[in-house]
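Fold it.
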Amino acid sequence: MAPSGTTANRTTEVLDVCIRYSNYDTPFWARPNTRPGRWHSVGDGATQYLSMTTDGAWADLIRCENLRTPDELKLVRMPLWQAKIDQSYVVDYSDFDRAGAAGFAADALIDDDHARCRVEGKRLRDAGYSGVLAPSAALPGELCLTLFGPRVAIDWSARPALSSAIPSSVLTEGSPPSGLLSRVRFRGDAHAGYEAYLATHTDRVRVRARRPPGNEPRSS
């Protein structure tokens, strides 16, 4: 369904295989999430977080669990799920310029404090958009896809009969590659992609992604 109301965000269609780590028997939320994430607050409804690559998914896990050494990575045993995404009306915040042009603060996309993204996520959800494509906070240069609304996993070879059904399967199970560790951006660190954006926009005020007070949310 197309977005309603007067909002005019630039959208894109995502037709790709996306990745998510999950040690449950499904990679998706059919009921509302029990914890807040970058683009949702508790009570907003089911929200799905995916990465566009396996490196992006592993980086998100490393950042969320604050894994700092190769030995810590070796202890991980986590399934990575692959999902065939065919989704239109996804808001295109895939780079900092596009977010800024739409009137959304570019630094919010990778800020350690998710408050602004949660407000924006609710606005976009209420307007009828299906999700957001945005830079990864955990791995500069990668993208993350967030989908609003419940989804259910179906067999990888099945043809979806409902828009909420997504063909999915476990891609692999194991540990993040140790070589990825040096590329992960942890909370409180500068984001190389955002720094590059600032370097080409010298008229903009330099805003650092900040560490939120209290408990840190798990979705980056």
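The CA atoms of residues 9 and 103 lie 9 Å apart.
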